[in-house]
Protein 1
Amino acid sequence: SQTIHQWPATLVQPVGSPLSLECTVEGTSNPNLYWYRQAAGRGLQLLFYSVGIGQISSEVPQNLSASRPQDRQFILSSKKLLLSDSGFYLCAWTERTTDTQYFGPGTRLTVL
Amino acid sequence: GQNIDQPTEMTATEGAIVQINCTYQTSGFNGLFWYQQHAGEAPTFLSYNVLDGLEEKGRFSSFLSRSKGYSYLLLKELQMKDSASYLCAVLNQAGTALIFGKGTTLSVSS
């Protein structure tokens, strides 16, 4: 069966510090991968998606970036965090036969 | 543009039936999803509709009318553990991304 991992689970970072969040999927190959952010009291916002290694599409311009160095690994990064980057970051993968997205456990980021 | 509307909050009692509505106006449509999200946790998949009609899965059912841009999630025999946020999401025309509504927070009381 497929599983999706994210780490760390929680993170507290100062403004201006760098960020690296990692997501890995097991039990499937060539999945579509996604990064979402959920700010307090707001809906899920799609940040990036990837249909393959090195292929990244950005949905919103901001100080975040994403990379996919391996088939089942998706990384979210920032060089300098802003207060507004605080939120719940969720990675998801798509089962291609049904287009159903399955979410990882998430990383709760607080920028102080 | 892309717009997905759901009520912000709903309340119900144990054992009751509740219907959560979702209307959408999107530039493309390739299916509609419902997810459940408990506080502090990740969303979990509930249902998927791509054709008009009702999909039933245990206590949960989901309905879609593509011509009306309308869906609902029906929860029967409500339990306290059903207290959660319910997210409606539309898959875009390319099938590459989900567009989420802001979610409906359901509170179930005894």
Note: Chain A has a mean pLDDT of 92.
Protein 2
Amino acid sequence: ETVLTQSPGTLSLSPGERATLSCRASQTVTSNSLAWYQQKPGQAPRLLIYGASNRATGIPDRFSGSGSGTDFTLTITRLEPEDFAVYYCQQFGRSPPMGSPPVTFGQGTRLEIK
Amino acid sequence: QVQLQESGPGLVKPSQTLSLTCSVSGGSISRGGNYWNWIRQHPGKGLEWIGYIYYSGRTYYNPSLKSRLTISVDTSKNQISLNVTSVTAADTAVYYCARDLSGRGYFDSWGQGTLVTVSS
């Protein structure tokens, strides 16, 4: 199973600052198979980034994704009050090892207001 | 704009079967290329992928749950269903249905989720 480890667990920043969230995979993830989601309390996750660096429809350009192989990053420039939430990375493997799911999520990074 | 809506009992007794339905509106569930997924989130925890179904009926389940899972599709009603047998407290979670638009393994549309509690 491809394990995704996100860091930090919690990130405390102020509006207007830049946030850098990390997602590290236990094995190589093809770049077009890494996505990022935002989840606010009581809501379903919302797709932000797919294919490691492509913004989903309607996502502001202050959100950007980068990385390849086993290291991926979500960057949020100029934090807005509505950006404080939990962020998850997710990978998809077309041919996972026997007994492993094709889809796994990271454990999440909580972005909180400082 | 496709919309997904989960429905089903909020309380299930241990050892019984959890049954949920996801109704899809604003688009046909039979549209080629779309994969319809179930994902769950234990209270205060992260996300766990359960499985998917294609409109043809082809399924792929999480191996850790496979022996207890059935996902089915009803194209006439534009719905997908999830059955989990022999539930325990560990199956208590918010259950989401979500669409993978193109089979590339990311989820662009989600239902609002439904909380299922397993308790006697």
Note: Chain A is about 0% helix and 55% strand.
Protein 3
Amino acid sequence: QAVLGQPPSASGTPGQTVTISCSGSGSNIESNTVNWYQQIPGTAPKLLIYANTQRPSGVPDRFSGSQSGTSASLAISGLQSEDEADYYCAAWDDSLNGFVFGTGTKVTVL
Amino acid sequence: EVQLVQSGAEVKKPGESLKISCRTSGYIFTTYWIGWVRQMPGKGLEWMGIISPSNSHSRYNPSLEDQAIISVDKSISTAFLHWRSLKASDTAIYYCARLRMVGTTIYYFDSWGQGTLVSVSS
């Protein structure tokens, strides 16, 4: 099954910047835009970033996304305790003709 | 306000059938595809499939074997996930989500249901 690669964990102290990478291929990240979802344990995923860099209404500008070639990244600046969650990247895959999700990254605020 | 409200948790035995629902409101149901996403215990998100409520055209993840069938009932703005014969490995949380498509390269799930826990055990 096609999946996007993410580091299993990332951490930082309050106020720091944490960056999460997402590795894909030509049929997904390079061809279509990347989304990022935040999942707080016990709750449904929430859209954080769409179309590589766009934030839905209500998402703080501390969250930012970027994409280059077959990779993408999510940066969380000014880290806060409420940012502790699992983060998933996702993109449409032209070979699968469907969605692929990243393996997920657990962010811990130290 | 866009809302997707899913049916409650289910406890079933292997071999039993099950249909869970995702009731939508706050937008025109036939305008956006609906997707289903699986999350097995302690694991990540997996895309199961999507369906167009306007014509019931659907696509499924070919990597998932013997998976559930996706359907819709336009009259009640609701999508469904149906199993004919459950297995223990179907134990998971299932999320429905509204799919946004812009042009040919921008795809994202913008609104999600709260999730339905399905437990299958003898």
Note: Chain A has a mean pLDDT of 96.
